[in-house]
Amino acid sequence: MTEFDDALADDVVVRRAERADLLDVLRIERTCFTEPWPYSAFELFVDEPAFLVAARGTDVLGYVVADVMPNHGNDIGHVKDLAVRPEARGNGLGRRLLLHALTAMTIAGAAVVKLEVRVSNEPARQLYESVGFNPARRVPRYYGDGEDAVIMVLDLHNWHSQKT
Ligand SMILES: CC(C)(COP(=O)(O)OP(=O)(O)OC[C@H]1O[C@@H](n2cnc3c(N)ncnc32)[C@H](O)[C@@H]1OP(=O)(O)O)[C@@H](O)C(=O)NCCC(=O)NCCS
């Protein structure tokens, strides 16, 4: 793995995840989370249009996993996982990944998008709020260590009308 060089941020592309990326994704996942997903969980999402990686060459710097579930014509997108390698943070990659995933979910037919985030995860909560997510409710002891989750929701219709 190479050190992230801010000046090379423009060389980073966001693209669909491939099977060949999964070991890098798993390595990042284990660095970032106390309850990391296993390899088999990522395998399930390889064909999802909103499983994306931020990569510089063959080097994976971050990823987002999201999908869309049918809901009687009001399909619901779900951001399930998002992480950027610690040394690559603060360069806009988390935001780029999230925005690409929102676009992919819009194309896949999602009307709203939801996600869960730890109440203590200030960087992620600020990122989500900055793109338009609103806290909807709190789920006590959602995580294995007993921490509460905040459910955040974004209405994609409003999101698009704000962008145009
Ligand atoms: C959350 C995470 C993906 C953000 O990635 P990143 O590449 O550093 O984020 P960006 O550089 O795109 O920053 C986008 C916004 O996030 C927020 N943010 C990022 N880092 C922050 C920090 N340390 N403190 C507060 N807000 C922060 C800011 O709103 C920032 O916007 P700004 O640059 O205009 O201030 C990254 O911190 C991470 O991987 N964390 C560990 C895994 C995790 O918690 N994932 C979320 C699970 S719900």
UniProtKB/TrEMBL annotation:
PROSITE patterns, per database record: GNAT
Keywords: Acyltransferase, Transferase
Gene Ontology cellular component terms for the protein in this record: NatA complex
GO MF annotation, one: protein-N-terminal amino-acid acetyltransferase activity
Gene3D superfamilies associated with the record: 3.40.630.30
Listed NCBIfam families: rimI
CDD domains: NAT_SF
SUPFAM superfamilies the record matches: Acyl-CoA N-acyltransferases (Nat)
Keyword Acyltransferase found: yes
Protein name per the record: Ribosomal-protein-alanine N-acetyltransferase
Domain N-acetyltransferase: start-end pairs: 12-157
Keyword Membrane: no
